[in-house]
């Protein structure tokens, strides 16, 4: 018998006569309201086909509060614009898909770039998720700069505070870490023993280079200052509409050094969004000369 969770059915749902029934009420109006709220709060554009995902993720918050209707949950949120629950709401609807050295072609380009720079290196990872990307950047700094890497810094930000907590801990399933080459595993990770068997932690020399901070790219003010030698903004713009993408790119430009690199995700193209940047290579941009 196939477990319902394997079919992507929430534990609070069950099959009946070929239909999915729910223990919580999510109306069309509720879904439209959720889409509007997460767009206003985080700039995230939720497509119509994301309805089941929204139900599954937010249902946990309703059950936590003992609420049975999404209408009541959303009304409570809107009555309390500064409530802590907004953080949980945003975290629930944020997608964290990442891996160590994801889109691997970027890291040799980063190494080549930082090797040419004079003085301390500062890099901003603007969608840090659970930490794999900023730690990959830190490992690249250590491999490239050696002892000089101690003067470098990776500022890693994300809107999802739950993801940031996991990132700060720097602990990952060993199977995930083993996907790296053996040399990197030995140099940059500590394997867990006893109760931590099956886990690996990034070594202190890696974590010391990374500072994790909460940051909403839609906020009127950012807590990061620059100037940066490189900015990683990979696989986050796909969740924003073009107007939001353009506004964010416009704000990136003054925070970057004249020869800084901007790294985008494999399915993102900034050339049609902003004239502040020009394409240098495969999903890598530099500031356009004025």
TrEMBL record:
GO terms for biological process, alphabetical: methylation
Gene Ontology molecular function, alphabetical: protein-glutamate O-methyltransferase activity
Keywords: Methyltransferase, S-adenosyl-L-methionine, Transferase
Residue ranges constituting the CheR-type methyltransferase domain according to the UniProt record: 19-290
Catalytic reaction list: L-glutamyl-[protein] + S-adenosyl-L-methionine = [protein]-L-glutamate 5-O-methyl ester + S-adenosyl-L-homocysteine
Binding site for S-adenosyl-L-methionine: 96, 98, 102, 133, 158, 216-217, 234-235
The protein's Enzyme Commission number: 2.1.1.80
Function statement: Methylation of the membrane-bound methyl-accepting chemotaxis proteins (MCP) to form gamma-glutamyl methyl ester residues in MCP.
Protein's name in the database: Chemotaxis protein methyltransferase
């Amino acid at each position: 018998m196939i477990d319902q969770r394997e079919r992507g059915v929430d534990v609070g749902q069950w099959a009946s006569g070929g239909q999915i029934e729910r223990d919580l009420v999510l109306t069309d109006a509720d879904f439209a309201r959720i889409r509007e709220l997460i767009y206003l709060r985080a700039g995230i554009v939720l497509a119509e086909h994301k309805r089941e995902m929204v139900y599954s993720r937010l249902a946990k918050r309703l059950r936590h509060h003992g609420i049975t209707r999404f209408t009541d949950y959303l009304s409570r949120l809107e009555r309390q614009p500064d409530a802590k629950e907004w953080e949980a709401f945003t975290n629930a609807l944020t997608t964290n898909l990442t891996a160590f050295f994801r889109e691997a072609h970027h890291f040799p380009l980063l190494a080549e770039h930082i090797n040419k720079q004079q003085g301390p290196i500062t890099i901003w990872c603007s969608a840090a998720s659970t930490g794999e990307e900023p730690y990959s950047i830190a490992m690249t700094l250590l491999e490239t700069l050696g002892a000089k890497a101690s003067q470098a810094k990776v500022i890693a930000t994300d809107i999802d505070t739950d993801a940031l907590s996991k990132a700060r801990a720097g602990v990952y399933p060993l199977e995930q870490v083993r996907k790296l080459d053996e040399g990197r595993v030995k140099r940059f990770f500590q394997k867990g023993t006893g109760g931590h068997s099956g886990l690996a932690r990034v070594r202190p020399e890696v974590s010391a280079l990374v500072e994790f901070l909460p940051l909403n790219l839609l906020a009127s003010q950012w807590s990061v200052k620059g100037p940066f030698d490189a900015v990683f903004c990979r696989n986050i713009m796909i969740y924003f509409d073009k107007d939001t993408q353009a506004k964010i790119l416009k704000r990136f430009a003054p925070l970057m050094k004249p020869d800084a690199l901007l790294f985008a995700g494999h399915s993102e193209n900034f050339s049609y969004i902003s004239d502040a940047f020009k394409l240098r290579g495969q999903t890598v941009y530099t500031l356009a000369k004025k």
